Amino acid sequence: AKKPHVVILGAGYAGMMAANQLQKKLGTDRAHITLVNKHDYHYQTTWLHEPAAGTMHHDKARVEIRKVLNPAKINIVQDTVEQVKTEEKQVVLKNGDHLSYDYLTIALGSIAETFGAEGVYEHSYHKWTLDGARELKDQIEFQFAQYRNQKETEEKDLTFVVAGGGFTGIEFIGELTERVPELCEQYDVPREKVRMYVIEAAPTALPGFDPELVEYAMNLLEHRGVEFKINKPISEVQEGKVILKDGEEIAASTVIWATGVRGHPIIEDAGIEANRGRVKVESDLRAPGHEDVFVIGDCSLIINEETERPFPPTAQIAMQQGVKAGENITNLIMGGSPTKFEPEILGTLASLGGKEAMGTVKTRKMYGRSALFMKHMSDNRYLLKLGGLSLMLTKGRNPL
Ligand code: FAD
Questions:
Q1: How far apart are CA 2 and CA 376, in angstroms?
Q2: Which ipTM score applies to this complex?
Q3: Which end of the chain is more exposed for a tag (fewer CB within 10 A), N or C?
Q4: Between these two residues, 158 and 271, which has the higher pLDDT value?
Q5: Contact in structure between 326 and 31 (CB atoms under 8 Å)
Q6: Which residue lies with its CA nearest to atom 4 of ligand 1?
């Protein structure tokens, strides 16, 4: 009989873990496996605030896919997915190729959610990708480098606005506060010329975090010069400024968008039912009405049975879903049945720049160095799973 073709789209946390599972569980005599990704590397999305602020070299945050997956077992295709045709069971790639699949796993991650604000895609740094991080880092440095070379300086030149005081926005501003003193010194810019804002639409920064942790993070960041504007939705981003719903305008040459994500647009284009681009998957991670399509990571939506609300999209869940999708596809190919995905939330830890972090591990609140230690240990655990000890030693974090 013809061997089934398993196609995975996207080599983020979800796609890499799915490929890793399939490579372990399914012999090449059982199935053909193809992984399609835009780049020949996998990057650590959860680290991108660091290269974006310039506190980490971007190469540290990426891994060559061929070094961690076995090309003898998995056909690794570097290309951009343009379309998924579920009726024809085909994937259309940018180079014109059509890949036919028997089982598809969509793990293409997310794009910025704008919540109706205008000008976001045109006038803000909204791409949380490796390319996006590099571009933002250069922009920040450019603003400092040009400052002393202008006839007239304006406040907007060194004003950095982070839209969104959630996990990503807070982690980014934390890094930026660490980088700014260094840049001021390097480019002879007085520190008081630099302004940093976090603008949040919700009644609190870091919604979903314990209020004590939120206070800890905000105090620390305010101490480092961050100004918070809470309960202030943004209605528009224009060249050189943001406009709030209440009419206030903040002049800023650099606006960083981090208000949350929606699933990759390919999902909606494929005619798979989605909510903000995310597919509310069945308990076995398949898309409703599509027996041969698994959707995992930020493209998927699963409900927390305790709160009856969706889990926020995280790397933590994406990785676990990757493993489960790999197992379930193996089961289906071997004549078994897929099983239920049950997320195990180990904790949530946000870095705040330097040696600072905060969050919860299980139900325990953690602050400062010990929180950062736990976060780095969990980063290292992922690298160990993905590429063994050698990957952990070359790309891992020094937890101390
Ligand atoms: P991704 O990791 O984004 O991977 C998607 C992959 O698909 C990428 O490799 C991309 O190149 C590829 N791709 C996209 N489009 C195409 C295309 N058309 N064709 C081919 N390939 C394509 N979560 C946590 O749990 N803990 C944290 O501490 C944390 N910190 C974060 C910090 C920041 C700054 C950000 C931005 C996010 C953070 N998150 C964190 C969230 C987490 O990063 C995401 O939930 C996670 O990356 C989702 O994994 P994924 O595999 O679905 O997508």
A1: 44
A2: 0.99
A3: N
A4: 158
A5: no
A6: 12
- Pocket flag, ligand 1, residue 80 (CB < 6 Å): yes
Q: Helix 368-395 crosses helix 13-25 at what angle (to 10 degrees)?
A: 50
Choose one of 345, 361, 387: the last residue of a domain.
Answer: 345
For residue 87, give its domain range: 5-38+79-112+261-345
Mean local confidence (pLDDT), 139-158: 96
CA of 49 to the centre of ligand 1 (A): 12
> Per-residue pLDDT for 390 more than 90?
yes
Describe the chain by its helix, strand, coil percentages, rounded to 5.
Answer: 35, 25, 35
Does 48 sit in the ligand 1 pocket, CB within 6 Å? yes
Is 130 domain-assigned?
A: yes
pLDDT tens, position by position, 67-96: 999 999 999 999 999 999 999 999 999 999
Q: Ligand 1 centre and the CA of 329: distance in Å?
A: 22
Using a 6 Å cutoff on CB, does residue 105 contact ligand 1? no
Separation of alpha carbons 141 and 60, rounded Å: 19
Could you identify the atom of ligand 1 that is nearest to the CA of residue 299? 52
Catalytic residue (one of 113, 171, 175, 178): 171
Same domain (yes/no): 227, 368: yes
Q: Is 73 in the pocket of ligand 1 (CB under 6 A)?
A: no
Residue with CA nearest ligand 1 atom 29: 46
At 192-213, the pLDDT tens digits run 999 999 999 999 999 999 999 9
pLDDT of residue 398: 87
Tokens 């976001």 found at: 120
Q: Is the pLDDT of residue 160 over 90?
A: yes
Q: Does the pLDDT value for residue 1 go beyond 80?
A: no
Task: Determine whether 171 is an active site residue.
Answer: yes
pLDDT at 104 over 80: yes
Residue 122 is assigned to a structural domain of this protein:
yes
- Please give the distance, rounded to the nearest whole angstrom, from the Cα atom of residue 184 to the centre of ligand 1: 32
Write the DSSP assignment of 325-336 as a string of letters: HHHHHHHHHTT-
- Can you tell me the distance from the alpha carbon of 399 to that of 232, in angstroms, rounded to the nearest whole number? 37
Shared-domain flag, residues 252 and 265: no
Measured in Å, residue 318 CA sits from the centre of ligand 1 at 9
Instruction: List the CATH number of the domain containing 322.
Output: 3.50.50.100
